[in-house]
Design a protein that fits this description.
With 346 residues, the protein is α/β, with parallel strands linked by helices. The protein has a single domain, classed as Aldolase class I (TIM Barrel). Helices cover 35% and strands 13% of the residues. The chain contains eleven helices and nine strands. Strands 6-5-4-3-2-1-7-8-9 form a nine-stranded mixed β-sheet. The chain is globular, with a radius of gyration of 19 Å. The protein starts with 6 loop residues before the first strand and ends in a 22-residue tail after the last helix.
Length: 346
């Protein structure tokens, strides 16, 4: 029997209230909401828990907190089943102490707030909304304050609060300031960094961009300067960075450095130099229509989960694993699918 999946990425919507330059959800003419019923969603989660009792559920969107009923119900079901929950949100819905208290009481075990840069100009431009930086940093502070009000026997019992940022041409030269903002000024538990990829969602039918100027510009990160700055920040902020991760990220940007036709994005046929992704061996993605896949891309087979047992059958079938095991698409650098963790275990 194949080893169980480690993560279930569960999408509860495909709409968002921002207009991020690196994402295309807001361009969709018909944003999708959860079409599988909550009872059916609960069955999928229950089957996942049976397969992987120590598994983790990543609640995805769009912006998942725009549908609070589905969001918090998913968290409740996961707690009942003993599953760990994670979520990335833009922070716009955590606007008051009461919002933060609800997240601490009823939300995920790990909350990451998207923060693309250490200043309002960079973040707001990349997020396509004025005031987005203020909302993101405010939500981080509110969550940390709410957590401090919660009693706990152990630190591990409290939700983890992270910032999730992008490594781009606009952010990589300010890494020290970025870490200072997140770790020293705001006081979050960690700053996670993802390397910029071609615009997300661009692989879906009917959602292709004529030109991906954002990726063309922001992928131009000087690899030698990046390596120097990562080493310096690792030492200064005691990040315990994984040398393998650092090497792969630097290699990724070295491959893209001064490459022609980057504006073609996913259509350019660009690949990483190494096999970085092992999503096929640890992840299951379930979209808002109840269709399961082993990857966010639609380039590989998927299956509609119509009844109990379908999730296990899909996971244990040979399917597309052999083809996926040689995939070197640029998305392999993402934290959610890469083989190497960014930080080492203390």
């Amino acid at each position: 029997m194949k080893k169980p999946p480690e993560f279930l990425f569960l999408s509860i919507n495909e709409h968002c209230n921002l207009r991020c330059l690196h994402c295309d959800y807001w361009r969709m003419r018909r944003p999708s909401l959860l079409t599988t019923s909550l009872p059916r969603q609960g069955e999928i989660l229950s089957e996942f828990a049976e397969m992987s009792p120590e598994g983790k559920v990543v609640i995805c969107g769009g912006e998942p907190t725009l549908d609070p009923s589905a969001y918090f119900e998913t968290c409740r079901i996961c707690r009942y089943l003993g599953l760990t929950t994670l979520s990335v949100t833009n922070g716009s819905t955590v606007a008051t102490p009461e919002d933060a208290d609800r997240m601490m009481q009823n939300g995920p075990d790990e909350i990451s707030i998207s923060l693309d840069g250490c200043d309002p100009e960079t973040h707001d431009r990349m997020r396509g909304a004025r005031g987005a930086f203020a909302e993101a940093t405010r939500s981080l502070s509110l969550l940390l304050e709410a957590r401090s009000r919660r009693p706990a026997w152990r630190w591990s019992d409290l939700p983890k609060i992270y910032a999730m940022g992008l490594l781009t041409a606009s952010t990589c030269h300010h890494l020290d300031s970025f870490y200072e903002l997140v770790l020293a000024k705001i006081g979050a538990d960690k700053l996670k960094l993802n390397a910029v990829q071609p615009s997300f969602l661009n692989t879906r039918a009917g959602q292709r961009l004529d030109s991906d100027e954002f990726f063309e510009v922001e992928s131009q990160v000087d690899p030698d300067l990046l390596d120097r700055d990562l080493i310096a920040c690792d030492q200064k902020w005691r990040l315990n960075l994984n040398p393998a991760w650092r090497s792969q990220v630097v290699s990724y940007f070295r491959y893209l450095w001064q490459k022609p036709q980057l504006a073609r994005g996913w259509e350019g046929g660009f690949e990483t130099n190494e096999l970085l992704c092992n999503s096929y061996d640890r992840n299951v993605m379930v979209d808002v229509h109840g269709r399961a896949s082993l990857c966010f891309s639609t380039a590989f087979p998927s299956r509609r989960l119509e009844k109990r047992g379908d999730l296990r059958d899909f996971w244990e079938s040979p399917g597309c694993r052999k083809e996926m095991s040689t995939c070197r698409a640029l998305c392999g650098i993402s934290h959610s699918v890469r083989r190497e963790h960014a930080t080492r275990t203390p």
